[in-house]
Amino acid sequence: MTVKTDVDALTPSHSAFAVENPMKRDDPASVLEPQAGVPGEAPMVRFVGVTKRYGALTVLDELDLDIGRNEKVAIIGPSGSGKSTLLRVLMTLDPLTGGMIEVDGEPLTHMRKNDELVPASPKHLRRVRSKIGMVFQSFNLFPHMTALANTIEAPMQVLGLSRKEATERARDLLSLVGLEDKCNHYPSQLSGGQQQRVAIARALAMRPKVMLFDEVTSALDPELCGEVLNVIRRLGSEHNLTMLMVTHQMGFAREFADRVCFFSQGKIIEQGPPQQFFSAPQHERTQQFLRAVKEAV
Ligand SMILES: Nc1ncnc2c1ncn2[C@@H]1O[C@H](COP(=O)(O)OP(=O)(O)OP(=O)(O)O)[C@@H](O)[C@H]1O
Ligand SMILES: [Mg+2]
């Protein structure tokens, strides 16, 4: 694996939430696995002719989309246009009807066998999928486990980390999201924003290269929403992570994303850098959508 060059960017002094934490390890760069894009390398995520149907309904329609390494992509569009489905098929929560997905230069939904691509085995799926983390609108924490227990569970069960290693990693990440003092709280003892930040730490504990966020602030009131967006903003600016974010918050998409993709009926009908996308949308459907969003504010 190539090594990220701006390791210094991971020092906690850059962190809005950084506080002295005796549990923190000396090497903050190891909180997240370093990675970097090298010119000419394959995109981090590649959708090739991806189709998803539920019965007669085509939700993703022969979609081609490349996401670069460390690229931050905002996915916007009307309800029912296929945004969550896009993230769900990438997370392998739903099988594809057609096409294929590659992650980090290797097939995700397929594997090579005797020079042929065949549908991926469960083992192959698990291995490649471990490069991806996902955070949902409804935090999906285990209610009977503390923030710390929620965060160590998968690294121990799936990655085989010892309890000590997983706990060190979890404390670092809970600190990264500003919750070093809430490690022993249960979800019911945390605010919505705090629960969502635990969910982010839990996803990061698997050291993904790609993070998917599906309307992660929609269930939160504006103040708590700000806390979560700050964490995402910092993850984006201080760590090498590829991010796909479905959002209805146009302000955040504009400021955070490198590219905005507008979905309509399972297709990307317009995409571009936020500045250009929001100030001069070309497609009539995009203009109509942005007008409606503006009027709703
Ligand atoms: N498991 C399923 N079975 C049948 N239809 C489904 C299933 N999941 C999603 N759909 C349908 O697929 C379409 C796209 O759904 P999706 O959740 O991707 O939309 P979305 O763009 O995320 O919308 P929203 O902005 O409301 O979250 C919808 O018409 C939905 O009803
Ligand atoms: Mg959705």
UniProtKB/TrEMBL annotation:
- Can you supply one Gene Ontology CC term for this chain's record? plasma membrane
Q: Which SMART domains match?
A: AAA (SM00382)
Membrane topology type: Peripheral membrane protein
Q: Which UniProt keywords apply?
A: Amino-acid transport, ATP-binding, Cell inner membrane, Cell membrane, Membrane, Nucleotide-binding, Transport
Q: What is its main location?
A: membrane
One Gene Ontology term of the molecular function aspect:
ATP hydrolysis activity
Q: Which CDD domains match?
A: ABC_HisP_GlnQ
Compartments where located? Cell membrane
For this protein, the record's PROSITE patterns field holds: ABC_TRANSPORTER_1, ABC_TRANSPORTER_2
SUPFAM superfamilies named in the record: P-loop containing nucleoside triphosphate hydrolases
**What are the ABC transporter domain coordinates in residue numbering?**
45-290
The protein's matches in InterPro entries, at most eight in alphabetical order, are given as: AAA+_ATPase, ABC_ATPase_HisP-typ, ABC_transporter-like_ATP-bd, ABC_transporter-like_CS, Ectoine_EhuA, MetN_ABC_transporter-like, P-loop_NTPase
Q: Does the keyword Transcription regulation apply?
A: no
Pfam family, any one: ABC_tran
List the Gene3D superfamilies hit by this protein, alphabetically. P-loop containing nucleotide triphosphate hydrolases
Q: Which family does it belong to?
A: Belongs to the ABC transporter superfamily.
- Family matches, as PANTHER family: AMINO ACID IMPORT ATP-BINDING PROTEIN, GLUTAMATE_ASPARTATE IMPORT ATP-BINDING PROTEIN GLTL
Q: What is this protein called?
A: Glutamine transport ATP-binding protein GlnQ
Origin organism is Paraburkholderia phenoliruptrix
